[in-house]
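Before relying on records like the one below, remember that each one covers exactly one chain. Contacts with other chains, cofactors or solvent are not represented anywhere in the record.
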Amino acid sequence: MPTWFWIVIGITAVVAVVCILLIVFGKRTEKKQKQQEAEMQRNAQPMSFYIIDKKKMRLKNAGLPKVVYDNVPKMAKIWRMPILKVKVGNRVMNLICDDKVYKTLLPKQEVKAQVSGMYVISAKRVRGPIAEQKKRGKDGKVKESFIDRLR
């Protein structure tokens, strides 16, 4: 048999092994993520607060406690996370927010939310500006302005 045939068989075997490993590790991480979400739902507490500002920034610049920054995985330290600057009672604090929740909130809103530690799981507007619906194109996708894409 020609040499190129064995090379092709070797490459397909390597690709098959890599695909199987990705599937196995994907299932494991999915299971861990479901367990973590269930734990966060168990520990969630209702909280009412006023949103002063919202930004996407790195955890290092977010003004979170050092303990939080130290316990975050290395890859998450690089990412830009959705951060809410809120006023709870007479204290001003920063909270990490879920992406889905972050899109529905606006600054200068009073919100009732489910918070697990420093992570906002869900939120419902009580008072303040209402988030406007984004314009949709003919294909059903949301049209974003140039400025929104830069954020």
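The chain is about 40% helix and 30% strand.
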